[in-house]
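Re: How this chain folds, sequence and tokenised backbone to follow
Notation: Tokens come from a learned vocabulary of local backbone shapes, not from coordinates.
Start of record: The labelled sequence and token lines come straight after this line.
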Amino acid sequence: MNKDQVFKEEIQKVEDFKFDTTVASVFDDMVNRSVPFYGEMQRMMAELSADHAQTGTDVYDLGCATGTTLIGMNTSVADDIRFIGIDDSKKMLDKCRSKLEDVEFRRPFELRFGDLNQNIEISNASVVILCLTLQFVRPINRAKLLKDIFDGLNSGGVLILTEKILAEDSVFNRDFIKHYYNHKRRNQYSEMEISQKREALENILIPYKLSENITLLRDAGFSHCEVFFKWYNFAGLIAIKE
């Protein structure tokens, strides 16, 4: 696994974060060191996917990145279910395909290039994953994306959503962010790396409160929604379509 050093050197003018070749090559290290309990989050999503994946349907990973979630679900979800990964970065899709080949991925699967800010075709789905992805979709487009997911799910299908979030009461945001940056420091990120990445993500990653995400899910049509993971400013939600 290549080590994330994207922001290690001082950058005179920090540009908006992009999932380009450089990021794709180190993404697995980046997300493992940056996201608290990322491995546990992946395990939980795989377990929940196995609980709800239906024979003869498709499982979607929207913003599939380098394929970690697809590979994790592959060991728990029945073999007769097709996986579909969608991402708007061709470099990430290339890395994803390479990783699937490395683990000799045998089940039916399809990787698609697609922008979640635009119309995404979802059909015959029993599970849809949004792993740290909705936060990168422009706020104006989030409600439509969730409605498209709801419409594309079969009855009994689920949406599994993990997100970086804001505290319900803003008085706690400073503490939560402090503990999050301490997590990064424990994983050997320097103050410069933390600062420069924060600046790069400022206009790209826009988190909502947990309650705001739940409201979006209910407005899209999901009548049942439950939190399955929470760590300071990160959360996991599962919502079911009746």
Q: What stands out?
A: The chain has eight helices and eight strands. The first helix runs from residue 21 to 34. The first strand starts at residue 58 and ends at 62. The domain at 21-240 is CATH 3.40.50.150 (Rossmann fold).
